[in-house]
Amino acid sequence: MPRRGALCVGTLLVLLQLAFVPSPLAGCLLNPCVEITPNTTFRCTGLNISGVPEGVPNTTQNLDLSFSNLKSLGSNYFASVPELQLLDLSRCHLHSIEDNSFMDLPRLSTLILTANSLQHLGKAAFHGLTSLKKLVLVETNRTSLSELPIGHLHTLQELNLGHNSITSLKLPEYFANMTSLRHLSFFSNKITSISRGDLDALRGGNRLNLTLVLSLNNIKSIEPGALAGIRLAELALRSTFENFSVMQESLQGLAGLQVSRLVLGEFSDAERLEGFERGLLSGLCQVQMEEFVLFCLKDFEHDTDTLFDCISNVSTIRLVDLGLEKISEVPPLSKVKHLECKKCDFEEVPAWKLSLFKELRVLRITKNRSLKDFKQKFEGLSKLEVMDFSENSLNIRTCCSPKFQNCPNLKHLNLSFNSYIRLTGDFTSVKNLLYLDLQHTTLFGPGSYPVFLSLQKLIYLDISHTKTEVKSQCTFCGLNSLQVLKMAGNSFGDNKLENNFKNLTHLHTLDISSCKLEQVDPSTFDALSELKELNISNNKLLTFDPGVYQPLQALRVLDFSRNQLTVLLESAREVLPHSLVLLDISQNLFDCSCVYLDFLKWVKEEQELLQNEELMLCHMPSYVANVSLLSFDLSSCHVSMGTVVLSMFLLSSALLLLFLIYRYYFQLYYSLVLLSGCKHSAERGETYDAFVIHSSKDQEWVIKELVEPLEGGTPPFHLCLYFRDFLPGVPVVTNIIEEGFLSSRNVIAVISTDFLESKWCSFEFDIAQSWQLVEGKAGIIMVVLEGVNKALLRQRLGLSRYLRRNTYLEWKDKEISKHIFWRQLTGVLLEGKNWHQEEVKLM
Ligand SMILES: *[C@@H]1O[C@H](CO)[C@@H](O)[C@H](O)[C@H]1NC(C)=O
Ligand SMILES: *[C@@H]1O[C@H](CO)[C@@H](O)[C@H](O)[C@H]1NC(C)=O
Ligand SMILES: *[C@@H]1O[C@H](CO)[C@@H](O)[C@H](O)[C@H]1NC(C)=O
Ligand SMILES: *[C@@H]1O[C@H](CO)[C@@H](O)[C@H](O)[C@H]1NC(C)=O
Ligand SMILES: *[C@@H]1O[C@H](CO)[C@@H](O)[C@H](O)[C@H]1NC(C)=O
Ligand SMILES: *[C@@H]1O[C@H](CO)[C@@H](O)[C@H](O)[C@H]1NC(C)=O
Ligand SMILES: *[C@@H]1O[C@H](CO)[C@@H](O)[C@H](O)[C@H]1NC(C)=O
Ligand SMILES: *[C@@H]1O[C@H](CO)[C@@H](O)[C@H](O)[C@H]1NC(C)=O
Ligand SMILES: *[C@@H]1O[C@H](CO)[C@@H](O)[C@H](O)[C@H]1NC(C)=O
Ligand SMILES: *[C@@H]1O[C@H](CO)[C@@H](O)[C@H](O)[C@H]1NC(C)=O
Ligand SMILES: *[C@@H]1O[C@H](CO)[C@@H](O)[C@H](O)[C@H]1NC(C)=O
Ligand SMILES: *[C@@H]1O[C@H](CO)[C@@H](O)[C@H](O)[C@H]1NC(C)=O
Fold first, then answer.
1. Among 31, 360, 425, 456, which residue's beta carbon has the most beta carbons within 10 A?
2. How is this protein positioned relative to the membrane (predicted)?
3. Probe ligand 3: pick from 39, 52, 58, max atoms within 8 Å of CB?
């Protein structure tokens, strides 16, 4: 018994495990690695392992082992995954990497060792990495470059040594051989100075394109000449200096540097510079550069008094978050071509001063919500092409010609995301505009007047969300070259599109989404034969009228989502051009009735064309509301169509049947009874003169008063009596029909009180009645005994009593009445009697 119990518990445990451990989880426990892309990319993070996990196949190219507990790497550690291209070993608690650990990875191009406090790094630790391009040694407790065994990695393009404790920028000689190096980062280290000779390894003639990041160090001095003759793509020195005087001093040390982009300033969350110095950037006079970027100097004083002194020959200047309140000084004959002032503290657009930058081609003043006024004019910026004043709070009373005098080359004007602009329609001084962006700025003018008449060359116009109501049909008149018109989030008079785009024959993109549209006039798109993209989503359109969209024969993208379309009819689907590659009709109010079966089928067939199919839901009928059109069961339609036909058929049959029953009640009733009876009735001869139906309680009377006198009299009549003549073992109904009615010429119904009360007798009498009607047989002889309730009798016998062929006899127990009764009865029975030979002889 105890053994049995133990067995039971064991089995139970196994069963419980099978039942409660979900199979995916069980799979996880077996293979701790996640296959991101089949056979090539695996993620096995957070493991307590040594070695490459079992489940990783030798075809793997990308392997993420981060957050695992690897501790140390030994030689040929990755022999099982020779195809590796990317290996991530971030935070693997690695403290040592032995020689030849990566020996088997000739294809590895990216090695990430972030956040491992490496104490031991073998001299040959990185041997074998003949294709390595990117080595990330961020946060690896490195203190110097000299002990870093990477000299043989000639293919290296990016070396990231951020967040270490490196104190000296002295580059070992092997950097001279790293001719592919593009990016060298010492972000957040402990470098305090740059001395002559430190960067000698970079002096090789063919190095042009290195970005050197020294941000977030604490540089106290740069020895003059330390960077002389060095060419860099970018030098980043953000939050590198302790105070302004150190910064100013150090910048002097940059003399002789040639750099494409120089980035100075601070990080907004690491600002520490104080005590602004005039001529802060004076050191930059000796630096050759193309682009200068200055970030986040909160204490930047004296505006631009000395700012441009040494950078006026730079072609691109970006000033970001500087707290500049105005442009105070501008150098004469500056060569600045591209000037950007982002998040500056201007209150008014400093147009006069900026107009002194005669070489200016691009001017951007963006992202300051306090910048409201635009009163001054830009003048004579003959080379200016791009003007971007987006994301301020500008309020412009008369736009645009008066603001830009003699700026004939202005092609892009971006005034988007501002407060208010009144367009007067005067663009004469900027009539070469190609791009005009006014989105999300309240506009006055468009919609009511043809304000764009003189912009004949404009190809791009964005007036989305500008509170414009298009009332005039000539709103877009003059824009004969326009290719892109974006005007989402506005409205049209009467919420109706009418002939608004008549001369825009070159338009290829039109966005009229979210415009409250309810109706589109048939001729609206007639001119748009080149239109490629139409976005009319998020309106209130009920129909997709083929006539309206028929002219759009070049259409590639049509977004008709979020309207109130119930169906895309065959006629509409037919006008969709062959060029269409994307159609979005999601989030409409689709009617999934089976009437539209062809549409529902079409949706399933056109999944490649249709976008956001998962958002195509049935709206009607209510029993399929919110069912996706894709998962809608088309076969349910076939079934219910069948059901409809079937039920129609059944209903009409039932109606027909009822009618027939009503019409041929007796015939049917009789046939029914016949059917349950004998099939050979027709073949039988008539053997009885009368079939007597009576109540069993009247049997005695029947024998005495009917059977004896009639069968024993002259001529003798032959009666059919159920208690005597019915065949035993045959169902009663069959007997009644076959032996009774079909074998008898007459029916004698002995009607007593008992007869009237007996259901069985009533049934027999009813059959007799119908039989009489249908077959036209001789009558029913009704013998009414004494004491029968006459009212009940009249009701039961009904009309039968008055039919000519029927005989109605009343029995009275008196001799004289009996005599008359006998004469009448024999008279009726004699009619049509077939005399047998013997009977004739007897007579
Ligand atoms: C992955 O590898 C297995 C076995 O090596 C192979 O059968 C399968 O086709 C491969 N799958 C892909 C997507 O390469
Ligand atoms: C990791 O595995 C080792 C044995 O291989 C064990 O001693 C250690 O406790 C494990 N660490 C954790 C966190 O599971
Ligand atoms: C990878 O492993 C399979 C067996 O699992 C072997 O046949 C194949 O040669 C191996 N490929 C390489 C490159 O090692
Ligand atoms: C960094 O390495 C030094 C030895 O070179 C060691 O004393 C120190 O603890 C390490 N730092 C960390 C955070 O592991
Ligand atoms: C640079 O490469 C050349 C040839 O490959 C080699 O002779 C020289 O020793 C290398 N220099 C350094 C510092 O590794
Ligand atoms: C320098 O690198 C940038 C990208 O970092 C690239 O666009 C540019 O063409 C490169 N210039 C040269 C001269 O290699
Ligand atoms: C700037 O920092 C240096 C070095 O720490 C210090 O000697 C000097 O006094 C500081 N100057 C100012 C103005 O704070
Ligand atoms: C700018 O260039 C002009 C001549 O091209 C030169 O005279 C002037 O000194 C330069 N200015 C600066 C700040 O380098
Ligand atoms: C814009 O300028 C105002 C002062 O004119 C200043 O208070 C604000 O910080 C500036 N920056 C932004 C992003 O609005
Ligand atoms: C105008 O500026 C906004 C905001 O910076 C930008 O999203 C939009 O693309 C610009 N428009 C053009 C035409 O460049
Ligand atoms: C329509 O464009 C044609 C030429 O493209 C031009 O001649 C005609 O004046 C324009 N009509 C309107 C109303 O702008
Ligand atoms: C149409 O415009 C709506 C916004 O009104 C946008 O969400 C949707 O992505 C646009 N459709 C296409 C195809 O660009």
1. 360
2. Single-pass type I membrane protein
3. 58
